[in-house]
Amino acid sequence: MSAASGLRRRGGGASVSGRTVAIALAVDVVFVLLFAGIGRSSHARAETLLGLLGTAWPFLAGLGIAWLAVLAAGRPLAIVRTGLPVWAGAVVIGMLLRAATGAGTAPSFIVVTAVTLGVFLVGWRAIAALVLRLRARTSR
C-alpha cells in the first residue's frame, strides 16, 4: 500500500483503503459544516452547535445521499467521478430539502451555495491530486 495515496494494489487494480474513504468523507463533512458556519456568521446568527447543525443538515443529507449514489468509497479522491457528483448532490438535494422545509432558497443563495461548496468539495480533491502527483514524482 502506498502511504501517500492510501491505495492498495490487488490483481493489477487499485483499491482504496478504508482509512482513505473515512478521511475523504470527514473532509467533505467538515467543509459542509464550514460552509454553514460561514453563512451563519455572515448573517449574525447565534453561534450554537444546534444552530449550525440546523443550517447544515440539508446539505449534509445531500452529501450523504450523493456519496451513496456514486459509491464514492470506490474512488473518494477522484475529482470527476466523485467530487463533481458529491458537490452537485450536496447543492441540489440540500436546496430541495430546504425548499421542502420552508427554508430560504433565494437565487443568490443558490449561487453562493453552489460556488462555495464547489470550491470546497471539488477544490480539496484537486489539491490532493496535485500533492499526490508531486509526491509520486519525487519518489521516483
Automatic annotation (TrEMBL):
InterPro entries: DUF3054. The keyword Transmembrane helix applies. The chain crosses the membrane at residues 21-38, 50-72, 84-103, 109-132. Pfam families: DUF3054. It comes from the Bacteria. The keyword Transmembrane helix applies. Keywords: Membrane, Transmembrane, Transmembrane helix. This is Membrane protein. It comes from Leucobacter chromiiresistens. The lineage of its organism: Bacteria, Bacillati, Actinomycetota, Actinomycetes, Micrococcales.
